Amino acid sequence: MNSPPEGRRAPWRSTKRWSWRRSIRRPTPAASSTGSSRALANRTRKRRGYLLLRVMLVLLLVFGGIVAGMVAAYSRRLPDITRMAEYQPQKATQIYARDGTLLANVYQKDRIWVSIDKIPPIVRDAFIATEDRDFYHHHGIDLRGIVRAALADYRHDAAVQGASTITQQLARALFLNDEKTIARKAEEAVLAIQIERFYTKDEILERYLNLIYLGSGAYGVQAAAHTYFGTDVWNLNIGQAAMLAGINAAPSDYSPYVNPKAARQRQAHVLERMASSGYITRAQATYWQAAPLALAGERPSGMLGWKAPYFTTFAVHRLEGLFGRAATYNGGLEVDTTLDPQMQREALAAVQWGIGQAAREGIGAHEGALVAIRPTTGEILAMVGGTGFNLRNQFNRAWQARRQPGSSFKIYVYTAAIDLGLAPTTIIDDSPICFPVGDGTNWCPDNDDHRFWGAMTLRYALAQSRNVVAVKVLQRVGVDRVIEYAHRMGIDSSLGQDLSLALGTSVVSPLEQAAGYATIADQGVAIAPYAIKEVKDSLGSDLYDNRYPQQREVVSSGTAYVVTTMLEDVIKHGTGYPNAEIGRPAAGKTGTTSDFRDAWFVGFTPDLVAAVWIGNDDNTPMHESYGGDVPARVWARFMKAALAKTPRHDFSFPSGEVQMVRICNADHKRALPGEPGYVEYFLNGTEPLGYCYGRAPIDTPAETPTPVSEQPSAEPTP
Predict the structure, then answer these.
(1) Are residues 578 and 698 in the same domain?
(2) What pTM was computed for the model?
């Protein structure tokens, strides 16, 4: 085989050797440089991304640790939110009249706690729409609300929208203060989260709606409903609910009593929020923006806003004695009292009329008082302590004043005398007498007319209010014994231990006098007068029940009846006639002190006792003001009005203890049948045994006398 010539290659064989390296397309120098840069950039970006991610993770972990540490640190020093279940806020005590009329909210903070089921949905919706529209969806803090508030503030370049949830506001109100710092906001957020873990939404909302301040001294929605609309929260309409929710943002600015225009604008804002949240329709929002609010009208704060303030302040005084000041003003007590509102109005009208009459007649009396008691129960039905309760003068003369009762005190002297065995026909000489005082001088009692009428019966002496006879009876019975009777019958004040006591020189209050006379009216049974019937705590549990007060028989029913008939004569033909006549069986006694500084009338029927006093606070004398004049007229005016719807009742006759005997006028012994005389009443064993002029009765059927309340007796002669 011939080979190709040297230096030449065979045509069928390649002159180049194959290499895998040649199969790779190599870039040109320029292209190679550009590709390397891109790869390097990609690798750099990836490395930076990984690094940034690692840094963010580290920062997140650090931030989380810091937050966790802060939460742990704040949690350790924050209060235990489980105490919220035991929290007892200051609550107003509510005082009611016997017919259910609210007399007063007594408080340091006017708050009436109501459970969530008594707060209607429309009120809850109004507050939620305005304060925390996502209340039922967050867990204490509202991140969306924070962002929304921040954007709103940014757009307006000012703080126009709050970010605190209802739970945060509750946490602040219960556990924190209003300090505006980051630390305080952090504490608020932590507490809110913890509260949401332990309490339901309804429990949170109930506390919130009862704690918030809503202006004009009202705390909570129930107190605010009464303050602004005069009704309970469950009676509010949509417009009123929106008004309350609007006030919450700035109570001093949005109260309708402070700024009606701003309050209306705020109400419109709340209604718009309610509509946008779907709680009401747009049509409803428009309607209630224009609807009248029916505001109750701003009432004076404190005691000046109470109804029947003379009685109510007395009831509060009694509450403080029973439960202390803190419970009375902060305990949320519910108090039922004995006050009869209609009778209270009649009492005030009578006192004001009487002082007006005194001014017109030139008597010079500027103040008065009246207390009315139901004798069979001891309930104080009316109490007027002056002509007007105001900022300048809140003195309650019905129980705080101590005044000389004058002759109205003689009831205790004569009750003791009758109970100890003297008879109404006992003869005492109305004649001059003097008693050594101890300093070498004598005290000589005198009668009002400076005259002496001679021998007379006890009945006549009491009806005509003869002072000397009363002193002689006191001397006969004993000062200490009369003081004992007075205290047992209802007088609490200390009494002077001298014979002038018979003339009413020791000071007492109208309430004490009413209590003493009530003992006689209730047939000798003493019941301490009271204003409070029942008290319940804020949860409705019974704390105090005085519906069945203690009763003590201090004199027999026979003694009480005999004394009653003697006091009836005061009105029929004694110092109370005719001004104290009221057209039904009644008994009473006048009282007038030296220099006319005090004038009284105290009297009763079987159904009602009333004590009336007029005078001057500075103890200046009046001008010839007798107890049988203006006080008797005030008493009669009140009694007629107070008993207008009460049937006429006679005093109960105790047939087993008292005897009715016809007495002749001449020597006050038994009258013979057919002879003229009058009916007298005697305790068993004290009736006279002899007959007039020492004669013996003829053997004829005895005439049976009738009780004095059914057949008025003729006035016996002295």
Answers:
(1) no
(2) 0.79
